[in-house]
């Protein structure tokens, strides 16, 4: 089992920044690829960003490329999502997730999920 707890969400104006954190406990964090997904009301949970277990490769949804940055600290068992130039359409609950699969953009490939943190971007 891997337990994931997100933090860092909040209310921010358009153009602002936030940094989300996801702290992991349980099984060895460094063995897992990590991803961030988001879910707006009435919509599906969509891929945002992912990073491989060895910190070699990162992946982003087109909608956030160039604005968001994913990073991980294996010593601290934490994954981060730095979000810049936020837009109202970025408003959602953001979830981190852990996967033993290489299919990083597929939410069904993730084994463990956090409860999420709300991000609201006002116009």
The averaged pLDDT comes out at 96
Q: What portion of the residues fall into strands of 2 or more residues?
A: over 45%
End-to-end separation in angstroms reads 40 Å
> What pattern of helices and strands is seen along the backbone?
EEEEEEEEEEE
The residue ranges in which pLDDT falls below 50 over 5 or more consecutive positions are: none
Alpha-beta classification: mainly beta
- Using the CA coordinates, give the radius of gyration: 13 Å
Largest sheet: 7 strands, mixed
Shape: globular
What is the count of DSSP helices, taking H or I runs of 4+ residues? 0
Number of strands: 11
**Proportion in helices:** under 10%
Overview in brief:
It is built from no helices and eleven strands. It has 123 residues and is mainly β.
Structural description of this entry:
With 123 residues, this protein is mostly beta strands. The chain is 0% helix and 52% strand. It has strands at residues 2-7, 10-13, 18-26, 33-39, 45-51, 58-60, 68-73, 78-83, 92-99, 112-113, 117-122. Strands 2, 4, 5, 6, 9, 10 and 11 form a 7-stranded mixed sheet that branches. Strands 1-3-8-7 form a 4-stranded antiparallel sheet, with no helix packed on it.
Please name the defining characteristics of this protein.
four-stranded antiparallel sheet; 123 residues; mainly beta
């Amino acid at each position: 089992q891997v337990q994931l707890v997100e933090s860092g969400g909040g209310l921010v104006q358009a153009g602002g920044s936030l940094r989300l954190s996801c702290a992991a406990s349980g099984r060895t964090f460094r063995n897992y690829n990590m991803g961030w997904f988001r879910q707006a009301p009435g919509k599906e949970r969509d891929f945002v960003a992912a990073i491989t277990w060895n910190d070699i490769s990162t992946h982003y949804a087109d909608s956030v490329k160039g604005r968001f940055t994913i990073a991980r600290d294996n010593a601290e068992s934490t994954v981060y999502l730095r979000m810049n130039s936020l837009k109202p359409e970025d408003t959602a609950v953001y979830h981190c997730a852990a996967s033993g699969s290489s299919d990083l953009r597929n939410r069904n490939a993730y084994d463990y999920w956090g409860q999420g943190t709300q991000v609201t971007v006002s116009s």
